[in-house]
Amino acid sequence: MSSGGIVVAIDGPAASGKGTLARNLASHFGFHHLDTGLTYRAVAKALLDGGLPLDDEALAEQTACSIDLSNLDRSVLATHHVGEAASKVAVMPAVRRALVEAQRNFAQRRPGAILDGRDIGTVVCPDADVKFFVTANAAVRARRRYEEIVGSGTAVDLGEIEEDLARRDARDSLRADSPLIPATDAHLLDTSEMDIETAFLEAKRRIETAMAEKDGN
Ligand code: C5P
């Protein structure tokens, strides 16, 4: 149990629905929300914008140290291209160290903080009060990402999205530092069949239970 407010950790692969779930829960409980993927995306975008290499660890670390969590603009960071670059900078331990420190500070916020990412329950907040691991099968996730991109008015090929996601899953799951794996004490939510409302109600119930337990201590 953490000593600050309630801490909720939500992990899962790209397009699993974890971001929507985290946002909806934060809004329901009045908790602070940090999409930690945006922090990796911000590092990647800064390097891309500067025409700098994505594999220079010292440079990427320096960039990571300058990231301002209060200034993460989803509208410019959300692109598929930046996500792909983010998963490259995310394999570097020095980048992760810098960002994890900022993420841990965020997690102290009261009355509660919800962080979503890949390593929240395992590395960033191993003592989180509640942990979820949100998954969906690869076909469902690719279809979701495809509809999101087409919905924003951009033409894209479904096969290409499937390949991109498979590549990103492999990079995130097989890296040596903080790979994507469920924490042993995470509640699994498979959104392949479950709609977002059902996942929300299940997660909300678990958080309410954790809050009642914390109050009783
Ligand atoms: O979640 P999102 O797709 O925005 O994340 C972009 C990339 O950032 C991921 O593919 C992953 O490589 C990296 N990431 C990470 N650890 C986190 C959050 C994101 O390594 N906690």
Give average pLDDT, whole number. Answer: 94
Task: Report the major sheet.
Answer: 5 strands, parallel
Which residue ranges are poorly predicted, with pLDDT under 50 across at least 5 consecutive positions?
none
| CATH fold-level label of the largest domain | Rossmann fold
Rg: 17 Å
The rough form would be described as globular
Strand content is 5-15%
Strand-pairing-aware structural class: alpha/beta
CATH level-two architecture of the largest domain:
3-Layer(aba) Sandwich
Bound ions, cofactors and other small molecules, one mention each: cytidine-5'-monophosphate
What do you see in this structure?
The protein has helices spanning 18-29, 36-49, 57-65, 74-77, 80-89, 93-107, 120-124, 138-151, 158-174, 196-216; strands at 6-11, 32-35, 112-117, 130-135, 187-190. The protein folds into two domains: 1-31 and 111-212, P-loop containing nucleotide triphosphate hydrolases (Rossmann fold), CATH 3.40.50; 37-110, no CATH class. Helix content is 56%, strand content 12%. The model has no long low-confidence stretch (mean pLDDT 94). Strands 2-3-1-4-5 form a five-stranded parallel β-sheet, with helices on both faces. It is globular, with a radius of gyration of 17 Å. Helix 1 packs across helix 10 (196-216), helix 3 (57-65) packs parallel to helix 6 and helix 8 (138-151) packs across helix 9. By secondary structure, it is of the alpha/beta class. It contains ten helices and five strands; from the N terminus they run E-H-E-H-H-H-H-H-E-H-E-H-H-E-H. It binds cytidine-5'-monophosphate.
